[in-house]
């Protein structure tokens, strides 16, 4: 209740601080111009709804497992006298509960340890790189602008910290929900019991909703508060194009901060995830328990199983959450920055904030549609899982399309000029729809190539009949092939959006693709939660029906996690183009203000230096990928050695392939 009261107070204060429209501008005098306070109402109400709904979803999740996973100490099997009074089945059940509590707490402890180790580096990076941003933006060596440098650095720090908080919330909720999902899957006495399917699916989906709605609501509210504060600092923002452009150039640091931390979460988390996953599997297959006996990666006798379960959440929960938050922040900042260069938009606050309305309305739509999965079209058997998740994507896309239309008619001028492009309300609406439905198509194409229900995955499975070589060759070929259709869709989105509204249209297309972010994150987190639930069930030796359900949910979750990656990559492509367009636009404006009008002195892609660095930039992803794969190999090797040490209880190994590492003691 204190949180709600604090948020309400913040809304009241910022409502009072909402910038007033420019009295001397034609757009502010028009009768149809919306009030600026309505922008604050829409954004803050939708943000508050998203945050409160995430709290409600967490409350529903917390109701499960209060007896088995409560704060009381692990119960064990009781005293000797109590054990004698229990039947053999009851003693096994009590031991399983004690194991469940212990494993659940161990995974949480491992997740917290990883996050603390990673975020210590992130905090240091924010501080150091924030100083670099301050100096570079202020450029004290010529026409120093310390005010702009300081504000941009603050935006960068706020974006980075918001990304950290988002990743932490997602990670903690995921590990909080894994054992509870296993307990829900235990309901019913057969593999096909509807009660177990519905309960376990709903809990995992609600766990994902906690991250999805909290991230969307929090990031939107924080970004808008930054806009209000900076508008108060630049209180003459609506008197000239230069002032409003400078305001949103400072705001752009928010997206940079989010993307910078997303790199740590995605890359650092991804390295940990893959090394732990492969390491646990290799440790079980190669080391085993001696005498040729092998172990499953989720076996309680496998020392790497906890690292594997922690790793399931690191990349696909904390990393993906930070990644999509970075895309949201950059898309929003790019749209605000490009919109600030439009004279029909940059004198009216309600028009300027239009990009944020798309995300705000998306939160409400995603919340309403979430009840379809948990209360209306529920999961009752294995085949329902993928269908329900796909229905979520289609429904949210459909209702966002309907909801965005009146926003375009109300909060955009009838005509607007972006650079040399003349745009209309319907043109901007078309840009949003292209991004929205293009993202949905990319998601379904990704599902086609990653789901066991379709031919590609089955062909990969059949390719193993002739050995690992054909499996690797065919799998790699299929991966390359899967990129063709999404790239073509992104190209069409860019072509249509740029033709309708220039770079502003491209940025709106990216925001349209991210308008269903709350649902995408809910589905994305769903997979790792179910994967962890299966591991917990295996380690606690729960009935086979539990693992049967969690494996089916995990299989669908792996597919839907790939859908989330498709959204992230597609939106990132659009955002990068929008940011590049904003850079070109503001470079031209800066050159014009200094009297540079000859084309030879402006930005030109045909210049040798520019084209050379274009090729250099195209090479960087391959370089970066190689470095991450080498890192995975090194970490995997160290993990393997540590498992050998823990299994054999000896530090006498000499590992030749580690290079300078001579003993396990050195590794540890």
Fold and architecture overview:
This protein is mainly alpha-helical and 668 residues long. It has one domain (2-14, 35-76, 93-603). It contains 21 helices and 2 strands. A two-stranded antiparallel ribbon has the order 1-2. Helix 5 (88-138) runs parallel beside helix 10 (305-339) and helix 10 (305-339) runs parallel beside helix 19 (544-593). It is globular and about 80 Å long. 50% of the residues are buried.
Notable traits:
disordered N terminus, 668 residues, single chain, 77% helix, two-stranded antiparallel sheet, 21 helices, globular, mainly alpha
Major sheet size, sense and barrel closure: 2 strands, antiparallel
* Percent in helix: over 70%
Give the assembly state of these chains: single chain
Number of strands: 2
Number of domains: 1
Q: Strand content of the residues, in percent? A: under 5%
If you average the pLDDT, what whole number results?
Answer: 80
Instruction: Indicate the radius of gyration in whole angstroms.
Output: 27 Å
Number of helices: 21
First-last Cα distance: 46 Å
Query: Low-confidence parts, pLDDT < 50 over ≥5 residues?
Result: 1-17, 21-31, 71-81, 650-662
What structural category do the secondary elements indicate?
mainly alpha
Helix and strand sequence: HHHHHHHHHHHHHEEHHHHHHHH
**What is the topology, as strand order, of the major beta sheet?**
1-2
Shape descriptor reads globular
Give the topology.
Layout: H1 2-16, H2 26-29, H3 36-62, H4 80-85, H5 88-138, H6 146-185, H7 194-233, H8 241-251, H9 253-287, H10 305-339, H11 349-352, H12 354-376, H13 384-411, E1 415-418, E2 421-424, H14 425-450, H15 455-463, H16 468-482, H17 484-513, H18 517-539, H19 544-593, H20 608-648, H21 664-667
């Amino acid at each position: 209740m204190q949180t709600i009261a604090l948020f309400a107070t913040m809304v009241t204060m910022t409502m009072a601080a909402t910038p007033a429209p420019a009295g001397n501008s034609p757009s502010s005098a028009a009768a149809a111009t919306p009030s600026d306070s309505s922008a604050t109402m829409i954004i803050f109400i939708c943000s508050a709804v998203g945050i409160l709904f995430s709290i409600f979803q967490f409350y529903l999740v917390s109701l499960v497992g209060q007896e088995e996973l409560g704060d009381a100490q692990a119960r064990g099997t009781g005293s000797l006298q109590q054990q004698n009074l229990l039947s053999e089945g009851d003693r096994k059940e009590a031991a399983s509960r004690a194991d469940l509590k212990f494993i659940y707490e161990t995974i949480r402890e491992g997740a917290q340890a990883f996050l603390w180790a990673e975020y210590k580096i992130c905090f240091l990076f924010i501080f150091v790189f924030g100083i670099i941003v301050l100096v570079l933006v202020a450029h004290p060596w010529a026409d120093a602008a310390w005010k702009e440098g300081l504000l941009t650095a603050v935006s960068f720090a706020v974006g980075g910290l918001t990304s950290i908080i988002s990743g932490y919330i997602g990670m903690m909720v995921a590990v909080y929900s894994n054992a509870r999902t296993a307990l829900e899957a235990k309901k019913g006495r057969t593999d096909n019991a509807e009660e177990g399917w519905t309960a376990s699916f709903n809990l995992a989906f609600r766990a994902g909703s906690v991250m999805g709605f909290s991230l969307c609501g929090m990031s939107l509210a924080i970004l808008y508060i930054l806009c209000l504060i900076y508008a108060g600092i630049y209180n003459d923002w609506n008197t000239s194009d230069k002032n409003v452009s400078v305001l949103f150039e400072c705001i752009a640091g928010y997206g940079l901060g989010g993307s910078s931390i997303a790199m740590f979460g995605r890359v650092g988390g991804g390295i940990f995830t893959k090394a732990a996953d492969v390491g646990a599997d290799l440790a079980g297959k190669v080391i085993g328990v001696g005498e040729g006996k092998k172990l499953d990666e989720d076996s309680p006798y496998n020392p790497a199983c906890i690292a594997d379960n922690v790793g399931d959440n690191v990349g696909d929960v904390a990393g993906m959450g930070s990644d999509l938050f970075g895309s949201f922040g950059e898309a929003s900042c790019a749209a605000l920055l490009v919109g600030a260069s439009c004279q029909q938009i940059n004198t009216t606050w309600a028009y300027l904030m239009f990009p944020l309305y798309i995300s705000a309305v998306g939160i409400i739509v995603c919340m309403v549609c979430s009840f379809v999965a948990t209360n209306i079209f529920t999961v009752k058997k294995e085949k329902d899982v993928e269908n329900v998740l796909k229905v979520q994507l289609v429904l949210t896309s459909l209702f966002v399309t309907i909801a965005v239309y009146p926003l375009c008619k109300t909060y955009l001028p009838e005509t607007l000029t972006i650079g040399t492009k003349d745009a209309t309300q319907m043109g901007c609406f078309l840009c949003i729809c292209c991004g929205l439905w293009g993202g949905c198509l990319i998601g379904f194409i990704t599902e086609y190539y990653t789901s066991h229900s379709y031919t590609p995955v089955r062909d990969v499975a059949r390719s193993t009949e002739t050995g690992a070589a054909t499996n690797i060759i065919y799998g790699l070929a299929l991966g390359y092939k899967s990129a063709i259709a999404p790239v073509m869709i992104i190209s069409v989105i860019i072509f249509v959006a740029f033709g309708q509204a220039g770079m502003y249209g491209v940025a709106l297309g990216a925001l349209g693709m991210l308008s269903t972010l709350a649902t995408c994150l809910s589905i994305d987190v769903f997979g790792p939660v179910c994967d962890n639930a299966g591991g917990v069930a295996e380690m606690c030796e729960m009935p086979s029906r539990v693992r049967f359900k969690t494996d089916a949910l995990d299989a669908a979750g792996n597919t839907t996690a790939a859908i989330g990656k498709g959204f992230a990559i597609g939106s990132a492509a659009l955002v990068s183009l929008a940011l590049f367009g904003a850079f070109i636009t503001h470079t031209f404006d800066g050159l014009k203000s200094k009297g540079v009008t000859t084309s030879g002195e402006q930005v030109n892609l045909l210049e040798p230096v520019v084209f050379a660095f274009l090729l250099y930039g195209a090479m960087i992803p391959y370089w970066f990928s190689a470095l991450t794969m080498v890192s995975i190999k090194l970490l995997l090797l160290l993990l393997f050695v540590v498992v050998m040490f823990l299994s054999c209880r000896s530090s006498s190994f000499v590992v030749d392939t580690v290079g300078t590492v001579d003993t396990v003691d050195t590794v540890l």
